[in-house]
User: Fold these one by one.
Assistant:
Number 1:
Amino acid sequence: MTKDPKVGIVDHNYANIHSVKKALDFLGCKSLIIHDPKELEFLDGIVLPGVGAFDSAMKRLNEVGFTEKIKEIAKRGIPIIGVCMGMQLLFKKSQEGSLEGLGLIDGEVTKIDVGLEKLKIPHIGWNKTHKNRKSVLMENVNDREYFYYVHGFKCEPTDKSIISSHTVYGEEICSSIETENIFATQFHPEKSGIKGLEIYKNFINGL
Amino acid sequence: MLTKRIIPCLDIDKGRVVKGKSFVNLKDAGDPQKLSQFYNNEGADELVFLDITASHEKRDIIIKVVEKVSSEVFIPLTVGGGIKNIENISELLNAGADKVSINTSGFENPQLIADSSKRFGSQCIVLAIDAKKIGSSWNVFTYGGREDTKFDVIDWAEKCVKLGAGEILLTSMDNDGQKEGYDLELLKLVSKRVSVPVIASGGAGTVDHMYDAVKKGKADAVLAASVFHYGEIKVRDVKEFLKSKGIPVRL
């Protein structure tokens, strides 16, 4: 574990960066809001948040030059956590948009299929989250803990073994991913109370 | 299982919570920070702040409140009242709000709903509707319930969802403050017609009312102000009651 790790929060205009920053501040973690890809150098970890539409966020990441820089840094092994839309941006493509994603995770982002249940879309609220396996992010978090979700699309990684937890909304939905230095949660840890903060704490402790 | 949300609403006037005076366990129940913390500890799923400050310097005051609360309470925070443009929304989100609720300004300028949901995402934009029954249907009222727009509530709700509103906060003006239950008929009508979650508001007096809003009114969340402020009902009691009736809640 790095002493006083420096964490960057990527600001691409389509993210709740301030809520994330407040959560990290509360945990006593030094965090910086990153507007320029150059500032991504010399960080110990990166948070890629996101709300809104896939293409809007990707377009901005491309324009500012974040896309290539994030890919490069990910290759170097710097831990990255994608949150909500930020998780979806880590994938190659999304049914929600036409732009190419970061492609750090193999797989696709697809529309939630509520089937015959006529559930409302987006999936908004606190949902029970089941652990699939031993998890770094979910250490000290109970199985079937509630987290706060807001999304209309879901992540489907090709390699199912990287899914560390899931929830159920009409169908099984991937809640978190952990593979080498890439982490992600579909729910908002910064809006999921004390248990949510544990997720960031675990991410920071792993830096 | 997705849980039904219980949402206390705090009316804020010049940075202070109104109606919160008789709170037993709080030294300063008018302090939004302390009250938010209290509700958070009780298991509130979200908080709604309604800024009712009448003066012009009000934006700064509510922004400071949001900044303070969001630094220590990590559940979704919706702020409404006096939001007129994208800049107002941006300021609130920068201060740590997660959603904003738009009422009168959305009616007068529906483009604001379209623009803001495009800019910040639908999940950010809560459409607040004040509904009053006129004959056999409900009209949308604006300016804090003072002005009848003559526009049908269902039509308005559907239109706004198309424009990009991510949730609907539906207040029955007829039932508000009566403590005789939510307007179940209205709730059910709107909830069936729109694809986004509907938050029931206006009329909560007992835990049974909240159960009915969810079960009969098909609400996705229930909001209440005074019954929580005066300690007549505790958030935890609502949740335990709903759970005993088979409604999924976060406990």
Note: The mean pLDDT of chain B is 92.
Number 2:
Amino acid sequence: MNQTTEEPIGRRHFLERAILAIFGAIGAMLTPPILSYILSPVSRIREDLAHSTQWAPVSPLSEMESIGDLPRMFEVPYRVKEGWRIRETSRQVYAVRKGGQLVLFSTFCTHLGCPTAWDESKRMIICPCHGGLYNNFGEVIGGPPPRNLAQLDYKVENGTVYLKDPADVYEVGWNDPRKRA
Amino acid sequence: MRQLLRDWFDERVGLDLFERMLQKPLPKRGAWFYTLGSATLSLITIQFITGAFLMFYYVPDGEFAASSVRYSTEQVRFGWYLRSLHRWSANLLFIVIGLHMFRVFVSGSFKRPREFTWIIGALIFWTAIGIGLTGGLLPWDANALWIGTVFGNTLSYFPLVGPFLRSALLGGEHVGTLTLTRFYAMHVWVLPLILGVLILLHLYLIRKHGLFGSVVEYRNQIQALEAKGVPRESIIVTKMTPDETEPFYPAQVFRDSIVAFFLISAVSIFSILFPFSYRGEEPPPARIIPRPEWFFWSVDEWLMYFPGRLIPIGLILLTLFFLFLPFIPFVERHPEVSPIRRPVPTIIGAWVYLFIIILAMMAGSRIFNY
């Protein structure tokens, strides 16, 4: 302490600034690469979706012909790309006939994404997490969900119903994130 | 001989520093209440020890995580025991932290000059929540998957940055392998490292400020100073008389050891009577009912009351509550520490706790009756 106070104040001042600058530079060298490293998967979301199943077979159309205005649940297997690997998984969708038209919609609650299920005795779709309630067409009738269950695109090819982009499971919120630009 | 050995080490590592720490005087009054902090530390130590050994068999990969958990639970000798210890002491930890915070708040122990001890404590609380949250994903069973999904989706409701936060946390658009690896890294290294540093700072500050003193003693000192016309804001009350105190070692260390022994025995007995089993293959996917850990029940229940467009408001209020915790010493600044003589903070504090407990109980009854 005695030594430093005898030094000219200019030198001490310079050294203090230099120390700050040195650690600032070290921080600047490390921080951007690390942040970018952590966030790397975020920038690859589109790419990963492009390498996942585009059209997943739901069921033969003939099996869906008996569906009326009560939703029936189907298990849809698909592949999803996760970083270095492609994982086999599945999701569930509801199929229902609305005004003569076959409609597929998601089982994921639009509140926080929990798996809903059709309750036969209560005649509605119930989310077990926070009590979201939907009618047979997936329209909100109670609880916290901000919008109706996401309607899903499908196509019929060679007598089979295919679900579009099954790996795109981000569906919560009052705007459908799947409809983003 | 003992003195010789002591001196030999003292010269080389400086035992006097530790000896002075051990001799720090503590108040005799209410000494058992001061064991809550050390109880927290005991349980965190159990977490570090059991956690380190759980890593011997755990594989943080979407393909193998569940089977590695199953192996360590069902095949490895005492694997079920270590895993149950880890989970039971995590459960107990949140109760003990809650009690510790309540004790410190009610007895006004966060007041000048102990603001930073409280702030670091609040940061420790945040870190513990983060560790609890990230740890819930690691068993990689169906429930873990939904917990991760619900947590990520909750974040997505933050205005503007929500969807980005969600995908940054999950490492993509859904809970998958990349989510597991980052939650694992956070759970076993990043957050525990931060926790360790914070605990050291917390302990340093406790030792620096030494005894807090009993409420009665403080009240008398404050009254005496006020009678002399000293303005309330500038009052700092300090030392107690020696006969009201005793050294930290051995009396308080003995109390701490007793509490540690009973807590760890309790955790051990719970682990033997109610071991956590591997749940990966039950129940079939269509019947899955996601169940958060009970220490998130009150949060879970809170979010239920903000439907539709109000969801972000519930989320922001919740965030503000957590962000507010470190600032308590700057909000309640007068030197009075007695819970009876500062009724407004005491009542607010008690109501907040009651509110949290009631929310959790409502969530519990909802979750179990579904």
Note: Chain A touches chain B through 41 residues (CB under 8 Å).
